[in-house]
Amino acid sequence: MSRLGPCLSPRPLLRGPWTAPRGPRPVSVAAGLRRGPAGSSTASVAGMEELLSRSVPPLPPYETKEKAPPPAELRSAEFVRYYRALQAGPPRAELLTRLARDFGVDHGRVAEFSAKVLQAREQQRELGALLQAEDRLRYYLSPQYRGLFQHLGRLEGGLRFLVELRGDLVEGLATKAVDGPHVKEMNGVLKNMLSEWFSTGFLNLERVTWQSPCEVLQKISDSEAVHPVRNWVDMKRRVGSYRRCYFFSHCAIPGEPLIVLHVALTSDISSSIQAIVKEVPPLETEDTDKITTAIFYSISLTQQGLQGVELGTYLIKRVVKELQKELPQIKAFSTLSPIPGFTKWLVGLLSSQPKELERNELFTESEWQEISEITGDSTTETLKKLLNNNEWVRSEKLVKVLHSPFMRLCAWYLYGEKHRGYALNPVANFHLQNGSVMWRINWMADTSPRGIAASCGMMVNYRYYLEDTASNSAAYLGTKQIKASEQVLSLVSQFQQNSKL
Length: 501
Prior knowledge:
By secondary structure, this protein is an alpha+beta fold. Helix content is 48%, strand content 10%. Strand 6 (418-419) and strand 7 (422-423) form a beta hairpin.
């Protein structure tokens, strides 16, 4: 999640903030082991197969599963050493592919015990026999590599390593460096295991201040993926007066930020990110009487390997409770969120418009006439170029004429464009799942090059009415109903009246 939402796409993976610490490694994962293929661009296939055969524990028979001795700790540690010695890229991709393909589920056993479950049902055997048959089937549905992951998670530093490994899996699947159903299945299995290990009971909420350790401040700065930190003065401002910064750490990895949330304390719901991250607030002690609103303006996942693990929702809920304790006068909780993907979606719509039509179907006749006069082009080609290179914002006339149509198009993108019935935009989907209200779309709210390129400078407030979040979330997840304000619904209505898609 590297925006105020899920997608939470982090900074560089395991080569970044979780690189191995200086000094001697823990004996359990490093000392005295056989050297891996460090320094070579490829590892021998035979070496990989031999390593995997030693490292991946066989699935013991169902009858002796409780009595089977655990594998030697050094074998799991050897896998860590070998993997980290491999170069990133094809060598690691080859190892992960072999692990997923050759050490997955025993499909023969699954078929055998599936038949026995069906047989027990058909013969109407007693409930105990049916449940035991189902338990056997469940046991053999577990892939063999799951045992390796379980044992790695028990090693000192093992949980950190598994996050790194899944980071490589996620990146490999995104770039097609690794692919196929076996690898996708292993990625899902490891994600589910990490979801259990990183559940809220194991997470610590920590606040960042200017007195926090320098290493923590540096990591917070490096991980900020929504609104990059420019320098130490900027960082000091983001953890100073009228600002709060929190992160989750794990009890097995203390002090290491996993996901970071930035909050601005204001007197109203902000409509511009410039007012939060660019304007320098006066160096003064907070006046709590001026604080009535908490604005969540950035949430960033620091580790690619935790993508898809539910951390953002819990972090927001915990921070709300913290703020209510510290500043009980706060009555409004809202985000100021980016709208990633809007410009790309809009350019795609413009490309789909028939060139022979004099009137573009996305704009009213008068709007398109003004746009054509300014661009000197009756087709959409010039407008698309201006959107792709951000040059349109240099023309005050064009900014003015595009204000109304872009606002209603953005409202439709957030409210009307769907994926499997839910909001297409990942940030919108994240906050709507949490029970927020799509409250206000803001024009020219982020005038940075990144903001103009991603969403034509627009941002959106998702407002959290605490007494309604549970019912809103249930309505969205159950009936796919989006709760929106009058402003958003009015813009959607204008879109439906003036655009012909």
